[in-house]
Amino acid sequence: MSAFVPGLPRNTPTASPPAVSPTSPTVLTLTGERTIPDLDVENYWFRRHEVVYQRLAPRCAGRDVLEAGCGEGYGADLIAEVARRVIAIDYDEAAVAHVGSRYPRVDVMQANLAELPLPDASVDVVVNFQVIEHLWDQGGFVRECARVLRPSGLLMVSTPNRITFSPGRDTPINPFHTRELNADELTELLVDAGFTEVAMYGLFHGPRLREMDARHGGSIIDAQIARAVADAPWPAELVADVAAVTTADFDMVTHDDGPDIQDSLDLIAIAVRP
Asked: Which of 59, 179, 230, 254 is the most exposed place for a label (fewest CB within 10 A)?
């Protein structure tokens, strides 16, 4: 599995290349930056990302959606089940080729997220899950999202919670992350870009995952990372538990639901463009 929470390739300054239309399937490898489906040892991270797509997809129903930083593409395809149109953008050429060959109902192109190749006010929703922590110019990216959104459009962002993901550190543990955020910092980033009505959610382990935590020294996350870093064999019980994780094993909650969002694994923000 990945030694760190997978994400997507970081955005680096470049001109926006044209859309890609591959003619043959492309297989993505596990790099530690992004999660991919259909791997038992990657299943925990995959389900932790997939659950946010599942829970928020209804907000995309019948709408024009941009996924900024689509990675392997499974999330864009999930949204395409309900959306009117899904445009997927990623900086990584291999990822774009893979999405184009595997997910035909997604319109995919290679581009720099700092300069989105879309007209002003051209989409209803921008989805940005587990990406913003990889970007150098987070403020500029969020302003680009505001530009391409129509009035009352939604920007939906998920990102690891800095407080729990890199506890006690000013710099991220994950070498692929440029800047991690807590709930207040993410809210400030969105508000400074002109977004309003920012709703913040937290992702937590549900009861079954908390039982797994207890079986693996208090944290199934730490158990996986420790063995990945040491390149050590996985105990059979850990292999079985990781492979058994489903999206139903995660809880996505607000402050009103009880848990303190500051203690969440991931943050999920939904912001409205005026």
From this structure: 230
**Amino acid letter, residue 226:** A
Quote the strand ranges of 6-148, DSSP E: 64-68, 85-90, 107-110, 123-129
183 near 261, Cβ under 8 Å?
Answer: yes
Kindly indicate the confidence band of residue 37, based on its pLDDT and cuts at 50, 70 and 90: confident
E strand intervals along 140-234: 149-160, 196-205
Q: Which residue has the tokens 């009352």?
A: 152
Coil, strand or helix: which one is 270? strand
3-state helix, strand, coil in the chain (%, to 5): 40, 20, 40
Where would I find the H helices in 61-172?
Answer: 74-80, 93-102, 138-148, 162-165
Which residues touch 110 (CB under 8 Å, ≥6 apart)? 16, 17, 18, 19, 20, 89, 90, 91, 92, 93, 96
**What distance in Å separates the CA atoms of residue 257 and residue 65, rounded to the nearest whole number?**
29
Question: Can you tell me the distance from the alpha carbon of 78 to that of 130, in angstroms, rounded to the nearest whole number?
Answer: 16
Q: What is the pLDDT of residues 217-239, one digit of tens each?
A: 999 999 998 998 899 999 999 99
- 243-246 own/partner pairs: CB under 8 Å, 24+ apart: 243/40, 243/41, 243/43, 244/43, 245/43, 245/44, 245/47, 245/209, 245/212, 246/47
Pairwise CA distance, residues 134 & 107, whole Å: 23
Q: Which of 36-40, 211-215, 234-238, 260-264 bottoms out in mean pLDDT, i.e. has the lowest? A: 36-40
Tell me, yes or no, if the pTM score tops 0.90: no
| 87, pLDDT greater than 60 | yes
Instruction: Identify whether the C-beta of residue 216 lies closer than 8 Å to the C-beta of residue 241.
Output: yes
- What are the structural domains of the chain? 40-205+250-273 (3.40.50.150)
**Structure-token match 């060959």, residue found:** 101
